[in-house]
Amino acid sequence: MGSKRVAFIGLGVMGFPMAGHLATAGHQVTVYNRSAGKAEAWTGKYGGRREPTAAGAASGAEMVMCCVGNDDDVRAVTLGPDGALTTMRPGTILVDHTTASATVAREVFDAAKARGVRFLDAPVSGGQAGAENGKLTIMVGGEETAFAEAQDVLACYGRAVTLMGPSGAGQLTKMVNQICIAGLVQALAEGVNFARHAGLDTDRVLDVIGKGAAQSWQMDNRGKTMAADSFNFGFAVDWMRKDLSICIDEARHNGAGLPVTALVDQFYARLQARGGGRWDTSSLVRLLNDKS
Fold first, then answer.
1. Do 223 and 85 belong to one domain?
2. Taking 80 as the threshold, does the pLDDT of residue 290 lie above it?
3. What is the pLDDT of residues 227-261, one digit of tens each?
4. Is residue 198 located within the same domain as residue 286?
């Protein structure tokens, strides 16, 4: 894979290290972030260039990646008056790593296609640690030819990069991911709380059942910290509620029943009301600990 001129828009806890992997791999990276201080910090660490607008960062790039907050942010940095599509040339590729709706993915796909730009919706899973270690799972929606051209670049920070179907399929797959996680974390919280009430050594319980059918990434990485009441890392409650709202809204349109997901979403709302919006999602166990 030769060096490419790439732009990265959005340097949060995920985007900052993801863009860093591109620079480390030898690509020529230009960055944009809404708060200029993060862009300055990124260029101070990795070199490259920073621009004051998404359009400026995208100008001259062969590929543009963005990783921002929500649907409105995606629209602003792609379709807005200073958005990437205002300067991207025909034949280039725009990749959105934001966890957003399938609706906005299709909207940007259509707008990009009208300009001759290829678009991939490519949300990621693996959290901040996965971004920092370059081991994200990337679920992609879009056309096969664009995916084939982008795949090696995305592999700079993805251990599994998979085309799931046409535009929107990446976002829909990420919804499935979040639905599965929501129920799993609640079940893990209940199991940890039950073990405590039963007078068991919770860490030993997790070690034993983690070698059997109950094993999961959440158990391996969040079970013991959940038992220790430690929630100052990982994926925040605020972010999970944003993601679950996307899942629940999509389910209203496609007819899928999400009773457990809707219930867990309300549990997360209770944590937010307690000031726990920035706690890790495994903080669900606190609602069982004190019944507040």
1. no
2. no
3. 999 999 889 999 999 999 999 999 999 999 999 99
4. yes
Nearest Cα to Cα of residue 123 among 146, 155, 103, 100: 100
Structural domain including 128 reads: 5-166
Is 224 part of the annotated catalytic residue set?
no
Catalytic residue among 113, 174, 211, 291: 174
Instruction: Give the confidence band of 292 by pLDDT, cuts at 50, 70, 90.
Output: very low
User: Are 16 and 156 in the same domain?
Assistant: yes
pTM above 0.85, yes or no: yes
Do the beta carbons of residue 160 and residue 184 sit within 8 Å? no
Same domain, 187 and 230: yes
Residues 66 and 183 in one domain: no
Average pLDDT of the residues in 29-51: 98
